[in-house]
Amino acid sequence: MAKLWPFLALLALALLLPLTGNEYWALIATRACIYWVLVAGLNLIVGFAGQLAIGYVALLAIGAYTASVLTAGTVMEPLPAFAALGIAAAAGAVAGVIVGLPALRLRTFYFAMTTLGFATIVTQITLAWQDVTGGGIGIPGPSLPAPMDTAWGFYYFCLGVAVVCTWATANLARSRFGRALVAIRDSEVAAEASGIAKPKLLAMVFLLAGALAAFAGGLFATLQTYITPDAFTFDLSLLFFIAVLIGGRGSILGPLLGTILLTLLPEVAAPLAAWSTFLYAALLLVIVLAIPGGIAALLDRSGRRALPEDRAIRPREAGLRTLIGERGERAVLSLKGIVLAFGGVRAIDGIDLDLRQGEVHGLIGPNGSGKTTTLNVISGYYRPQEGGMTLAGAELPAGRPAGRAGRGIARTFQTPRMIGEATVLENVMIGATVEGRAGFVEALLSLPRQRAEERAMADRARLALDAVGLGGLAEARADRLQHSELRFMEIARALMLRPEFLMLDEPAAGLSVEEIKRLGSLIRAISRQGVGVLLVEHHADLIFDICDRVTVLNLGRVLAAGTPAEIRVHKEVVSAYLGA
Amino acid sequence: MLASILASGLAVGAVYALIGITYNTMFSTSRVMSFTAGQLGMLGGVLGSLFILRLGLPMPVGLLATLACCALLGVVTEVVAVRPVLKSLDQHLYVLSTLAVALLIQHATALEWSTEPQPFPRLAGIGTGVWDEKYWLPVVACAATILGLEYLYRYTLVGRAFVAIAEDNFAARALGLPERNLRMASYALAGAVGALAGFAGGQLLLAFFANGPLLNFYGFIPVALGGLGNNRGAVIGGLLLGLFQQAANFMVGGIFSSVAVFTLFIIVLLARPQGMFGAPAARRV
Questions:
Q1: Nearest-by-CA chain A residue for B255
Q2: What is the count of structural domains for chain B?
Q3: Helix (H/G/I), strand (E/B), else coil: A390
Q4: Chain A 361-380, CB below 8 Å of chain B: which residues?
Q5: Residue at A34 is within a domain
Q6: Which of A12, A401, A380, A46 is nearest to A196 (CA)?
Q7: Which of A234, A324, A478, B189 has its CA 20 to 30 A from that of A502?
Q8: Whether residues A324 and A451 fall in one domain
């Protein structure tokens, strides 16, 4: 909470603003607050989840028109202003999900395009639906009851809403939901392997952002006192979008400053007003090319502090017992007759495999023999054409990678998948996402259960980092770690699940001899806690040192299976793979 | 009525198809979808009107000048907004950088040209009614472009190099193809194609700065539905879109036709994200 002072300083400035006695400033500051209510939600979508939703002015328009139409009484009895604002927020939430849905299926550019298209459509509808919206002539906005009916009264109300939005979105950003959003942005595959269900999570965030945007729209209509379709130009959309990007991804303070900056800019530089959109666009280009990190990156000094030079990874296996516990009964994960073909190539051609808890099972074979493919079938990324899998006697459904974490199956990747802009600790905490019980609303409001859960998760992540030997790097940004450290970080993330089965895809690749030795003993210790380990590796020494069982694949088939001692002298294995 | 639906539908459809080809031409060498495609089409109309009506140049000179300006703009786009972000294609920064350039173009046009639609000159003065040149010119331009591109891709060395880069960037570079120069050339080519779209459709769409976003969206639909990089899909999709849109225009009115197009677009894309003729996404792990 050390970073609270910039927010408090801004709030103090905002509270003191009425001392100027200048109502023109009240107007500008109110507008900044209203924009921020929208941007705070959009920030979660663009800055955290990385979805390029450009046309958010559409939701502002929906909120503004809903609130205005309901209070003006063009279609029904006029409602009180606050009821209208509430209904506007609800309408915005629905619209937010509808606009957001394509993000679940479509690629980035496509999604950007559909939000743009949606913005155009909404404007056209407001123009054409004259009976309700007043068409080009417009409609009066809602007016709030006293004491919010004066310039300063309304300003304080909007400021209050803005403060609540800042607080709530900051809470969410620091929760497992915020981490999961960033994980989706930076490494969707790792997010899936940690059991993060992208559709559900994004739907909730779109709901929230839509409601906030439409509520802001209602306030906007109140501020304008009269709205026409002209008020909702694409330029405004651009302002919201660029405010987030100037601010920087994954930050709350940055976009807040960005919003204030962009709201003030045309006022301070009045002669440039006609060029404002041109300037926004130029600014966007400069940010993308020169400072992709935005204001947040400029402010973040701790991210640039040097890490110690002579650091070594020293796993502490003693911590594993408290971290992942003991397993009583030993279960089996078994594959029967798995066949998977890509076009004409049979990458896996009828493989049987039994993984037992408490054992290290090595999977070796030449390149292209189907090792990683087998691992991907187990973890659900590939759906085999034939064969089936069972876990502890129950069927393990093919496909559905995000369901694996919930079943206690964890994995690492051949190239470490990390969330570069998050700290090592946060990266590891991602692994425990499925265990979270506190809901979205609890996270928003930072309720006691949420806080307790968060503390427990952080403690366990530190334990996991200590166990793999990265205890000293918990607060470092993950993209500053060395390759070997990332491999151990991935193992820590997988251990957060307290996995029943752990699959490691070439964990020793790129490690020094000393590190491989430590890795071997760590893997061994993990398996002794009753975890079933599947180890895909090329380092024959490591395999024969630590495995209880070894399966050798060749051309998608099992060439041999048995104890390391049997495999080492197996004639075909020696000639096909190990060499004399 | 059927005749006018067909005439105007095929005409705007041909413009959409050409913008789609503009997208594809840029995409093929860089794997980047650029927001500038629609702006190039808009500029084709604005520059054509500027050169021929305002400056009084003869039609062929005006056409060549328009194409040259947009080709140059294509190269500038490549240098400014595409090359710097190619290194990290997976971060999708190109969406933002090309959007920024597109907006710069659009707003510079609004400020320096006009914010009102300006007239576009009659070019050949042939035909009346549904056979008016404003209806058949875009179709002819589209057909000529397709034939030209087919010739380029099949029978010339440069064209084959384009195809090679589009097919397998790494292999093409390993063979010593000048990837960067080819990419710049493809952006210049895309600029010219986009300009031709706006020029040929100038009498329909007028010289109007706000045409950019519309062309961007309606040119993108055939690309998305036909599959990225698939010119045949873009042409078929563009013509169908034009016909559908004009039919809806005549029958139920403009606003509802754009809502209908948008809804249809979203539904088809959600059902088949890779487009009607595209291949499913490749492996991720």
A1: A124
A2: 1
A3: strand
A4: 372, 376
A5: yes
A6: A401
A7: A478
A8: yes
**What CATH number is attached to the domain comprising B184?**
1.10.3470
Q: Report chain A residues whose CB lies below 8 A from the CB of B285.
A: 189, 372, 376, 381, 413
Check CB contact of A345 with chain B, cutoff 8 Å.
no
Nearest CA in chain B to A277: B107
The DSSP element (H or E) to which A257 belongs, if any, is: helix A253-268
ipTM field: 0.87
Indicate the helix (H) or strand (E) that contains A534.
strand A532-536
Compute the nearest-CA separation of B25 from chain A (Å): 16
Whether residue A211 is found in the same domain as residue A350: no
The tally of domains found in chain A comes to: 2
Q: Does A423 touch chain B (CB under 8 A)?
A: no
Tell me the whole-structure pTM to 2 decimals. Answer: 0.90
Q: Is residue A249 part of a domain?
A: no
Chain B, 187 to 246: residues with Cβ < 8 Å from chain A are 213-214, 216-217, 220, 224
Please tell me which residue of chain B has the smallest CA distance to A276. Answer: B107
Report if residue A410 sits inside a domain: yes
Determine, for residues A285 and B266 on separate chains, whether the beta-carbon distance falls below 8 Å: no
Examine the fold and report which residue of A183, A217, A236 is the final residue of a domain before the chain moves on: A236
Complete edge-to-edge strand list for the sheet that includes strand A332-342: A345-356, A332-342, A386-391, A394-395
Range of the domain at A192: 25-236
Q: Are B253 and B78 in contact (CB under 8 A)?
A: no
In a domain, B277, yes or no: no
pLDDT tens-digit profile, chain B (285 residues): 889 899 999 999 999 999 999 999 999 988 899 999 999 999 999 999 999 999 999 999 999 999 999 999 999 999 999 999 888 777 788 888 999 999 999 999 999 998 899 999 988 878 888 888 889 999 999 999 999 999 999 999 999 998 898 888 888 888 888 989 999 999 999 999 999 999 999 999 999 998 998 899 899 988 888 888 888 889 999 999 999 988 888 888 767 777 888 888 888 888 877 777 666 555 555
